[in-house]
Design goal:
The chain is mostly beta strands. The protein has one helix spanning about 30-35, and strands at about 10-15, 25-30, 40, 45-50, 55-65, 70-80. It has one domain (about 10-80). Helices cover about 5% and strands about 50% of the residues. Strand 3 and strand 4 (about 45-50) form a beta hairpin. It binds zinc ion. Zinc ion binds next to loops.
């Protein structure tokens, strides 16, 4: 199977902040916003809701080489935080 040189793949990411200690995490938006999963902070062990602690949502684009390995990662879209 041959991949094209300009093959790309995408990841929808949410940047969230622990409301207790302020530690910032990147998680998949699917996990944070669609499942609305509770997240345990690795620093202070507070359990919080990622959707309520959203800073911003980003679309990352991974530019791939001919065997599918990542050459470069770019932020290609920013979704405003919901009010
Ligand atoms: Zn914390």
């Amino acid at each position: 199977m041959n991949l094209k040189m300009d093959e790309k793949t995408f990841l929808d990411v949410s940047i969230i902040r622990c409301p207790n200690c302020g530690k910032i995490y990147a998680e998949t938006s699917w996990y944070v916003l669609e499942l609305e999963s509770d997240i345990e902070c690795g620093v202070c062990h507070e359990i919080f809701n990622g959707a309520e602690s959203l800073i911003e949502r980003l679309m990352l684009t991974f530019e791939l080489d001919e065997v599918g390995k990542v050459r470069e990662v770019k932020v290609t879209d920013r979704v405003e935080k919901k009010p």
